[in-house]
Amino acid sequence: MRSGLTLEFVRKENKPIELRQQTTKLGSEEFSLTVGGRYQSLKDLPKPLRMYLSSMFPSSFLDASYEVIRERCFLTLAFTVKGGHFYTFPAGQSLVGDFPRVLQSMIHLPGLRGNPERTYAISAVGATYAGPFQSYAASIIDGWYEQSSPSLATLNHYLQDLHLASGIMTRKVDETQVELRVNRVAGQNSSFVSIADVGMAVSQVLPVLVALATAKKGQIVFIEQPELHLHPRAQLDLARIICGAVERGINLIIETHSSLLLLGIQTSIAEGVIDAKNVALHWFGRDTDGVTCVETAAVDRDGSFGDWPEDFGDISLEAEDKYLTAVENAKAKQRKHA
Amino acid sequence: MRRRSSANMPKLRTKKIVVDTNVARSAGSTDDASSSLHSRKALLAILERRLTLVLSPCFETEWKRHESRFSHSWRVNMQQRGLIFWVDENEFAVLGRRIEEIEDRAFPKKALLKDLHVFACALATNRVIVSNESRLKRHLIRLGSLESRVLLILWASPIVEGDACSGWLRGGAKHERARLLSQA
């Protein structure tokens, strides 16, 4: 018997998407909570929820009226006990395991990762990273550098694999600011320069590499456009680093438009570097109504994804064909005029 | 958001096509603009219609030796989509022996054995060959008098037919009596 949580969203005209209903499945039982739903007393609550609350709190405490409210991305049970005290309880999600914790521990790297800076603000680094991950990258590297952590060696290997730098170090400017310095020439300490003085690729991919080096087994890392500003060869090399992270048990969600990155992942599968069952491809397109459609393709051991719903891979071939046709036409014209 | 299909998108079962290495060579070659154009059109039609390329290990080696940059990209694209079907070369042995045993000295045994992988791959699958080699076509018709199933091969030539060839492929390479070697 599987347990799970289903969230139902609605989109009303000219309004953003809103969470409407949350259904919790516990083996063969399930119950739904809807935003604004009211329960006059404990006995009116769905049975699994009633039993759970009864096992957690004394009955005198639960003598209250209940209302379902939205709290960020989940629905919460709000209850007012006698005396007017107001409490909230994560109604469904607490019953199905550590769902909220898994989401809260997710590392997110958006497609816009900011400009390279001369100095970065030092931020507190904990077990989770609220908001975009790139704002933590400099502080994490600084921590690794101060402690001579093996993670710094991993990060340096990644940078070398991508042919972007041979090493990275930090320099504290003051108690609140840190500078990131990269070495473009192997073995020469004097050639460390500010990350602001090298190509954009380093500053854009660095948070991605830090995320992959710091993520724990089972943690979700969501990366939008990891290929940003990378040379085609580096895009291909990045695929191998990504596959290494997957093999270490990190759950990666990658949004990409790089056919090279995809080809690199397919190559790693065909080479046996990564198990085919650990990879799935989701194509996002739009139907004629403008509604987003998702099609999922499983991968085989040759790295083939079967047929694709999008023309993703056809474009480069079409472009090559167009170019060759244009050259041939131009040559024919030249011959005609000769 | 709509989810149109779930975890396992099925592999397409499309017609299996043998593409001769001369098509792979001329597609993208600047030597002859017309043959290059029509060979490229044929390859693009195969990809667009999601037809399946038939290869065997030795046939693939030949392909690699002759393919242009364009044909190489095309083959990669076909592989990425799982549109390559591999034929076991052990199946070629019986046919090869039969050709070797032909006693007629004027029979083009050597030429046929050189291209055995091309027509053996076709005979092992849907009996379709896309080729610019008219000499092979003539040799196969001769072989047909001894090995009648060879005459059931559908033949298409990008250079000879031009747009008609790519059009036929785009339409799914359906059975056309006029394309049978028996009708040539």
Description of the structure:
The complex is a heterodimer of chains A (338) and B (184). With 338 residues, chain A is α+β, with helices and mostly antiparallel strands. Chain A has helices at 47-56, 99-104, 134-146, 150-161, 200-214, 232-247, 259-270, 314-337; strands at 3-10, 18-26, 29-34, 38-39, 64-71, 74-81, 86-89, 107-109, 120-121, 167-172, 177-183, 192-194, 220-224, 251-255, 280-286, 292-298. Chain A folds into two domains: 2-97, no CATH class; 105-307, Rossmann fold, CATH 3.40.50.300. Chain A has eight helices and 16 strands. In chain A, helix 3 (134-146) crosses helix 5. Chain B is built from ten helices and six strands, in the order E-E-H-H-E-H-H-E-H-H-H-E-H-E-H-H. In chain B, helix 8 links the parallel strand 5 and strand 6. In chain B, helix 2 (33-48) packs parallel to helix 4 (69-80) and helix 2 packs parallel to helix 10 (163-170). Chain B starts with a strand and ends in a 14-residue tail after the last helix. The interface between A and B is medium-sized, with 35 and 33 residues.
| Biggest sheet strand line-up of chain A | 4-5-6-7
Total number of domains of chain B: 1
Could you give the distance between the termini of chain B? 53 Å
CATH architecture of chain B: 3-Layer(aba) Sandwich
Number of helices, where a helix is a run of at least 4 consecutive DSSP H or I residues of chain A: 8
